[in-house]
Amino acid sequence: MENEAGAITQGTSGSTRIPPLVYPAAKLGRATRRFLAEFGAFSTLAGRTLSYIGSVVRDRQLILEQMEHIGTNSLPLVLIIGLFTGMVSAWQAAYQFKGLIPYSFLGAAVSRAIFIELGPVLTAIVIAGRVGASIAAELGTMKVTEQIDALESMAISPVRYLAVPRLLGATIMMPVLVVFANLIALAGAYLVSNFFLGISTKMFFDSVQRFFHLKDVLGGLFKALFFGSFTALIGVKVGFDATGGAEGVGNATIRAFVLSATMVLILDYTLWMVLF
Amino acid sequence: MIEIRNLQKSFGAQTVLRGINLAIRDGETVAIIGQSGCGKSVLIKHIIGLLRPEAGEVIVDGTNMSQAPEKELERSRRNIGFLFQGSALFDSMTVLENVTLGLREHGERDRAKLARITKEKLALVGLKNIEAVMPSDLSGGMKKRVALARALATEPRYMFYDEPTTGLDPVTSDQIDALIQELTGRLYVTSLIITHDMFTVERIANRVIFLHEGQVHFDGTPSELAASKDATNCQFLERYRHPV
């Protein structure tokens, strides 16, 4: 706690003054404690959500609704992002290959980059913005208007009713979206290669085929499972924690996007180390 | 029966409840009054198990709501209906879906039966033909009535009302009061009403609990409260006794 003069005091009583030289360590300690508390709360929510997975048959309608909201409704955006990602990847590869590597390898380089990294990660970041933030806004509004308390008062677990469908919806649909993103990105890369870089259809796809590894695609889809589940859980956690009316909901929305997008990049790095 | 023993709760440095002891018998209609921020809503949320106390316990029909595991808590909550201050209707659902959610989630699948129950409960609160309407298209008074119909749909033994007439015009407030009185008499539910409105207390309650500084300051009948000479009670009742 900081007092009016900006001096840091210890605990709620404010009785113990911390010497100025220790400020940074005290702040770091407090930040660490907050992080660990948040991490613990997130893990508890994840555990409680998983404990309700058995309700999947009973709640299939809720899960299908979320799959539509998270997956089907995100498809147009994912396709646009995928198309332009593929097109710009072809240009960038051509730029880097110039004078060094024959264009006959361009299809392989671009497709592998798409399957392993660009497809899953960019799709996940788009979903973090579109879905993670919308989950936080929806549940945050429910929280501040006491709708979540109302669910609990009616003996309906908010974790089962709200968190499980969103977790499953995102976890199932993220790899599906990544498949579409990969295909449209590959198509975009092919169009640029063929129309602007003079690479024939045969040369492009021969290159893709020659260096194709199923592990690349499956690894990307495996990562997408994690990206989807973490994005949904972060949205749910931030939404459940929202306080303070419209401003609180707005803050929750921003927080959900920032945390989800950051988590996607951290997970991407971690999973790369494990998978490839 | 609801028993509250030495209930204590703080939020950060602010202590809200400082050792509440109460017993609410079946069939009673109890009004809980007190200044804003004195812990009325916090108390009622402990009874339903939405908040966990720092010390003390709340026993509802033998279930310790502060320590019971989630499944047991859910079983106890099925006997409780809660009318929230802001109605807390699910804004993505129609009136019918709102009213029947509790029943559907606890296994009722017969659509004809759900429609019949909705019609009955809406009629009970003086509404009809609004099953397909979204909450955003209802007035404040109608939202309160729909929320009441939703709380009554599962035929609870206990009804908790959090400021049922706050923010409503005098005519609608009178209608809601009359509705609560009628429901309490007809359905023999134990009612707990949080309110600032002394007219509501006088009309509905047969027992008043006055919370002051986190403790029970007065526990008696509305007429005993009205006759009280205690300075804190008098200060709270001043506006009611001498309206401008």
How would you sum up this structure in a few lines?
The complex is a heterodimer of chains A (276) and B (244). With 276 residues, chain A is mostly helical.
Descriptive account of the structure:
The complex is a heterodimer of chains A (276) and B (244). With 276 residues, chain A is mainly α. Chain A has one domain (52-275). Chain A is 78% helix and 1% strand. Chain A has nine helices and two strands, in the order ββααααααααα. A two-stranded antiparallel sheet of chain A has the order 1-2. In chain A, strand 1 and strand 2 (16-17) form a beta hairpin. In chain A, helix 4 runs antiparallel to helix 9. Chain A starts with 8 loop residues before the first strand and ends with a helix. In chain A, 45% of the residues are buried. By secondary structure, chain B is an alpha/beta fold. Chain B has two domains: 1-79 and 157-244, Rossmann fold (3-Layer(aba) Sandwich); 87-155, no CATH class. Chain B has nine helices and ten strands. Chain B has helices at residues 40-47, 70-77, 95-105, 111-124, 140-152, 170-187, 198-204, 222-227, 231-241, and strands spanning 2-11, 14-24, 29-33, 55-60, 63-64, 80-83, 158-162, 190-194, 207-212, 215-220. In chain B, the strands form two sheets. A six-stranded mixed beta sheet of chain B has the order 6-7-8-3-9-10, sandwiched between helices. A four-stranded antiparallel beta sheet of chain B has the order 2-1-4-5, with helices on one face. In chain B, helix 3 (95-105) crosses helix 4, helix 3 (95-105) packs parallel to helix 5 and helix 4 (111-124) packs across helix 5. Chain B is globular and about 55 Å long. Chains A and B meet through helix 5 of A and helix 2, strand 6 and helix 3 of B.
